[in-house]
Structures are given as structure tokens and as C-alpha cells.
């Protein structure tokens, strides 16, 4: 049997995915081959989680989760702010709109027209004048690595590129450590089980960002910029990676915040409380009900033993019966009652009553039939 979900899966697997040619070839091939097997599982997982969420009532955000959401909101704002150019190191090529082939004297003369030169600018000028390959290192690792790496020779060899990468690795990992700390706080035990259930997932996401950025920078080909003829063709990898890093942090935090909000309010992936907690809650409700029934029994006995209270109760019910009889006797009320009775479908009502009666009788018959069987098994 075909339904809308099966039709959507067929269209997604055999119509949409083959046309996603902008994806990397390896990813595109994997989606074409394994997509028809993966997409149904994703749909089933989504339907299962949605069905589980519907079985529990929606509740407000717990106070502990609200604190985690506030922390993630602050972190998202901070990451987005840090991704702005104002907080990045100055890119003198972009500031002066110069090609990488520009002579160091020309480049820094243009920079001097924009602002006074600093000692770091003079050192950078010497680096560029010493070897043009240092410009490639500048594009890939930024000015700090080029100026302050003590064990780097500036020869642009493979080993020297690795040295610059090792130097940049410390600055690369530092914001990731801060991000992992934020994820750890947002999914710690202080948030409660709503946050701790996603601690492993958040940690894996944070570590994946570290590994991805380190792998990309470690395997980056700095010589690719030599083919750039204009400024727009230069790949300023250091600044581009920096922006993508903080945007990725913000996206991960937004995803975690959305997950915490949806799951803590039972809107998605609702997880019922443990059986022990449910038994404890049910026991408390039963105890409270028992105490109320006992109090009601004591009150009833007190009323029955006191003649004055007993007369008040009898007078109340006598008055209540008189008021109700007078109300029903009014023409308007009688007319409304007759209209309501006229609208009743007695045939369907009799059918429902018959179904209920048949169900009761069938249950009684099944109970009677099971008794001789159990007796014979006992014999």
C-alpha cells in the first residue's frame, strides 16, 4: 500500500537526491546508494518520537533548563559577535585592496595612508620582503603565527608549514575548549536529567568541530593562492576559518537550546519518568486520597451523632429537592428538556448500550470458561 510518506520517500530518494550535483561527489554517491535505506529509518524515528511525545502532556520549561537556555543564549550572542570583523585580526591585503603580488613597500605605503604603522607592521614588512612565500603563510595562518612562531624558519617548506600549524593549534583549540565548557555546563547535572541525557551528544558535536577544523587547517594547501591574480581570488583561510568557527559554535548552541526546550517541555522525544518515580507519585496520591476519605468519614460520623447538624443536613437536602422540582416545573425548563430529548438518537443509543452489555457479558463468559480450565490444570 502506498501512502503519502512512501511517495515522499520515493521522490526524495530517486528524484531530488540525484539532482543534488552541487554536493561533493563522495557525499552525493553515498546519498544515492544508501539514501533509500536511510531516509525511511529517519522518518520512522521521527514518527516514533512524535508519537511518544503525544502520550505525555506539554509542560512549562523547568527552572533548571531555563538557566541552561539563558547560558546558551548568551553564548550564541557572544559567538556571533566574535565572528564580526571588528574582533578579528586586521587583514592588510583586504584593508589596502592589494593583490598578493604587490611589493612590500607599495603594500605598506598604502597601509600607512590608512593608519600609522606599528612595530609589528615593520616586522611583517621584513617578512614579506625576505620571502614572498610568507604571504601564503600569512593567508593560511594569520599574522600572529607568522610574526611570533619562534621555531619556524619561514621557508614555506612542508616541515615549516607543519611548524606554523602546530603554533596555530594552540590558538585554534582555545575557543573550542571554551565552547566545550559551555556545552558541558548546559548539559551538566545542575540542569537535571533533561540536560544530562544529551551530554554525550553535545560533547561529540564539540569534539567534531575541533577535529574538523584541525584536519582542514593541517591539510590546507597554502600554495593554492599563488594562482590568484586579483584580490577576490585570494583565499584568506585564516579569517574564513575564524568566521566559520564561531558561526558553527552558534549553530551547535542553537541546536542544543532547541533540543533542550522541545524535550524538556515534552514537545519532542518525550521521555516518561522512571517507573520508580511514577510508583512513588501514585503512592503519594493514594495516601492523600485515603487521608481525605478518612477525614470525610470522621466528618460524616460527627454530623450523624449531632442532632443539630443532622437536622441542618436534612433541611438542606429537603430544600434542594424542592428547589430542583420547582425549577424543572417551569415551562421554559420543561421545553428545553423536551427539545433535548427530541434530539436524542435512541437507535444509536440503544446500539451503544447493547455493545457495552455484550462486552460485559463476553468478559463474564470468558471468566467462566477459564475457571474450569484452571481447575482441570490444578487437578
TrEMBL record:
Keywords: Membrane, Transmembrane, Transmembrane helix. The chain crosses the membrane at residues 164-186, 198-217, 243-262. It comes from the Eukaryota. PANTHER family: CHORISMATE SYNTHASE PROTEIN, CHROMOSOME 10, WHOLE GENOME SHOTGUN SEQUENCE. This is Uncharacterized protein. It comes from Pseudopithomyces chartarum.
Amino acid at each position: 500500500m502506498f501512502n503519502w510518506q512512501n511517495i515522499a520517500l520515493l521522490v526524495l530518494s530517486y528524484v531530488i537526491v540525484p539532482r543534488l550535483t552541487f554536493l561533493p561527489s563522495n557525499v552525493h554517491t553515498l546519498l544515492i546508494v544508501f539514501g533509500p535505506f536511510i531516509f525511511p529509518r529517519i522518518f520512522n524515528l521521527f514518527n516514533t518520537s512524535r508519537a511518544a511525545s503525544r502520550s505525555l502532556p506539554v509542560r512549562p520549561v523547568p527552572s533548571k533548563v531555563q538557566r541552561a537556555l539563558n547560558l546558551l543564549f548568551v553564548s550564541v550572542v557572544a559567538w556571533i559577535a566574535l565572528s564580526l570583523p571588528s574582533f578579528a585580526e586586521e587583514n592588510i591585503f583586504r584593508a589596502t585592496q592589494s593583490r598578493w603580488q604587490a611589493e612590500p613597500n607599495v603594500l605598506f605605503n598604502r597601509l600607512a595612508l590608512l593608519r600609522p604603522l606599528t612595530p609589528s607592521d615593520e616586522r611583517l614588512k621584513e617578512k614579506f620582503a625576505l620571502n614572498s612565500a610568507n604571504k601564503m603563510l600569512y593567508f593560511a595562518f594569520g599574522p600572529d603565527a607568522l610574526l611570533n612562531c619562534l621555531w619556524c624558519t619561514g621557508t614555506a617548506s612542508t616541515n615549516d608549514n607543519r611548524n606554523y600549524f602546530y603554533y596555530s593549534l594552540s590558538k585554534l583549540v582555545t575557543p573550542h575548549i571554551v565552547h566545550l565548557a559551555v556545552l558541558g555546563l548546559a548539559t551538566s547535572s545542575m540542569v537535571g536529567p533533561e540536560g544530562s541525557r544529551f551530554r554525550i551528544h553535545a560533547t561529540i558535536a564539540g569534539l567534531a568541530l575541533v577535529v574538523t577544523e584541525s584536519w582542514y587547517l593541517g591539510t590546507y594547501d597554502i600554495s593554492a593562492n599563488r594562482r590568484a591574480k586579483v584580490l577576490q581570488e585570494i583565499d584568506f583561510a585564516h579569517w574564513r576559518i575564524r568566521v566559520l568557527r564561531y558561526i558553527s559554535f552558534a549553530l551547535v548552541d542553537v541546536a542544543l537550546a532547541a533540543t533542550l526546550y522541545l524535550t524538556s517541555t515534552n514537545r519532542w522525544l518525550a521521555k516518561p519518568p522512571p517507573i520508580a518515580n511514577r510508583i512513588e507519585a501514585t503512592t503519594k496520591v493514594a495516601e492523600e486520597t485515603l487521608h481525605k476519605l478518612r477525614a470525610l468519614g470522621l466528618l460524616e460520623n460527627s454530623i450523624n451523632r449531632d442532632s443539630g447538624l443532622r437536622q441542618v443536613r436534612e433541611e438542606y437536602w429537603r430544600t434542594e429537592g424542592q428547589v430542583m422540582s420547582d425549577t424543572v416545573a417551569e415551562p421554559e425548563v420543561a421545553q428545553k428538556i423536551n427539545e433535548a430529548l427530541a434530539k436524542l438518537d435512541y437507535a444509536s443509543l440503544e446500539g451503544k448500550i447493547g455493545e457495552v452489555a455484550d462486552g460485559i457479558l463476553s468478559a463474564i463468559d470468558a471468566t467462566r470458561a477459564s475457571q474450569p480450565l484452571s481447575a482441570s490444570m490444578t487437578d
